[in-house]
Amino acid sequence: MSGFFSALLSALDPLCGPVGLFSLFGSGSIVACGETGWGDEIAFGVKVTITLALATLPVGLVIGFLIALAAQSEDKLLRLAAGIYTTIFRGLPELLTLFIVYYGLQILIQAVLASFGYDGRVEINAFFAGMAALAVVFSSYSSEVLLSAFRAIPRGQYEAGDALGLHRSRTMLLVILPQLIRIALPGLTNLWLILLKDTSYVSVIGLADILRQTGIAARVSKEAFFFYGIACLLYLILALVSSVGLGFIERWAKRSEGRR
Fold first, then answer.
1. CATH number listed for the domain at residues 55-206
2. Residue 20 has pLDDT above 90, yes or no
3. Which of 8-22, 51-65, 94-108, 115-129 has the lowest mean pLDDT?
4. How many whole angstroms separate alpha carbon 61 and alpha carbon 2?
């Protein structure tokens, strides 16, 4: 049974399958899948890019939600901390944030371990560092989107929950959160597309994403324009597929609002 599913997944592979994108170039081309071309390597880069973006999204949303809650808190220290966080990570270039996380965490962990007598070399996983850096950047922007959505919800909604005897956490879950998602969805859609493009930064720390794989192929084959054109096409396809999927989600959210 596992062999059947493996064969089915191979047949449905949009890049290296029988009707995949790279199969259209022919088995003898430089982007063919297998030993004759770079198709397998680039397909792996596409998987890494998609996995990184999907892994970053929920982490960034959770952190952004907490920052948005802190920004509208009655506690001045929480509001100050949220303001400092968003100012720093919205102001720093994404590439610089990636370097700080990737190299800074290594130095920090090494210093902590050295204090316990361990002098070995510490290396941070490139995927984890990329996800952490992109998550803090995504959260700093998404927190502003979510904060605007919070402010668009009337305070009477909270008071209505209190009048019904709901705990504030239940009011947030059952009353506020559904409205928050609907209001913030257009802004979060734009941030997702930005996140998808920002994954290209991780190529500088050695993660085998689309840009790194096509860059290696371009240097080895001396066909820079061709392979970077392939990279452009792949990013555009991912953006198009994302736009179509997010369009369905937005229409679903509007229909559910209409029924209420």
1. 1.10.3720.10
2. no
3. 8-22
4. 35
